[in-house]
Amino acid sequence: MDHALLPALTRIAEALERLAPALPEVPRLTGADAFVWHPAPLPHLVPVPRVSRVEIGLLQGIDRQRDILLQNTQRFASGLPANNVMLWGARGMGKSSLVKAAHAAANAEAPGSLALVEIQREDIRTLPDLLNILRQDHSQAQGRPRRCLVFCDDLSFEKEDSDYKALKSVLDGGIEGRPPNVLFYATSNRRHLMSRDMIENERSTAIHGQEAVEEKVSLSDRFGLWIGFHNCDQPTYFAMVEGYAGALGLGLPVEELRRQANEWSVTRGGRSGRVAWQFIQDLAGRMGVAA
Asked: In the CATH scheme, what is the code of domain 34-229?
């Protein structure tokens, strides 16, 4: 080898190293209490400095659901056994709001103990990749590892959709199992995550129809807790409105507040926590009060 070429070759090698992209860092649960999972183009967790949420004390009409979820979340945050949770039922009744509020309440008791990671419905197929990252974070942590709630809002599956198999395999199946520092919380308008026509189609076309149906319905069985949410009556709706109005300091007489709230619910075609909050937003805007 011509030793005179060695300096030139060294400079070429160093230049190539500078041009080469840096190796991606392994995502970590640091820098925030909440994150959003982005699987592409490179898997990463985006910190959320401020979570859009409602204080748990403002959630009216769901006291039983609140107590069940809060106790489960607090046990998990403190290192005790807890269950995956499916929150299902009527739309607008505070399912996702309750998850975010319970996460905040658990962290208020033990700051930084619990991270919330949101995964979008269309990214469910990448859930095993996310859990592998969280499993590594758990194995590399010094001292007490940080616990994590993986949260999917409005989860459901349609005909010809096989993504539910990825979810089944990571909840309780699979040789690796779910990482000990992770729980999965999901909200859905459907109790079994499948549309009725999807289930009926499986029953009518399969050779063993009931077995095909059970294979899909068994997905819901892998959630240790099912928490149901139902349409609220008028007293509950008024309690929601009055709670929000009190928190924002809207000095409107109760009779007038209820009259306007009732009129708003009629124009919206129903009563729910979401309708109550939308009414309060409108009322606060008309009164010139910052929400």
From this structure: 3.40.50.300
